[in-house]
Design a protein that fits this description.
By secondary structure, the protein is mostly helical. The chain is built from eleven helices and no strands. The longest helix has 18 residues, at 53-70. 29% of the residues are buried.
Length: 196
Amino acid sequence: EELLPEVAALHPMQRLPLAALAFPALRKQPRPALQTFVLVLNQLIQADGQTSLEEYCLAKLVSVQVIEALDPSRSASIGRNKLPDCATQVTDLFAIVARYGNDDEAAARHAYLQGMREVLPDSTAPYAPPKEWTMAMDGALRALDLLAPAGKELLLRGLTAAISADGKVSVSEAELLRTICASLHCPLPPQLDQVA
């Protein structure tokens, strides 16, 4: 309650980086306290029956950077999958990023196509954001984390193309990119690291 006014005054682009500063302190908490923290966080997120993009990104980052850090052997894997094998997950991911990163349908479709041309140039999958976007996003991130390193690199190039399609990076795009990179165990692309 004491910090709420200061946190509310932050620029939206500073929310997730601020949360990330707390992750090392969270990792030092005893496991029962951390489990309680995650449980309460998830209850707060689900309290209104909807999950906003900001809530999803925060919960996913806590999951990846705090919970996985407690048991790194569970998340450490070298992927061998190729992008064409994950085409459905790629299209879901790009559609979600395009939808939340643009104000209108035409701009979102353009961003989606820009990214898809980079990653799966032969794909004819139309721009169609999934209705259950949180479930689709979770599934996409799980599958795409098993990509070979070259596939992840190409995927991030495509995401950069989609996000840059309108010449600016929105708060939603920055939060999504930060969350996707953490979930895929990849660094942020250099040109967007400064923005996000």
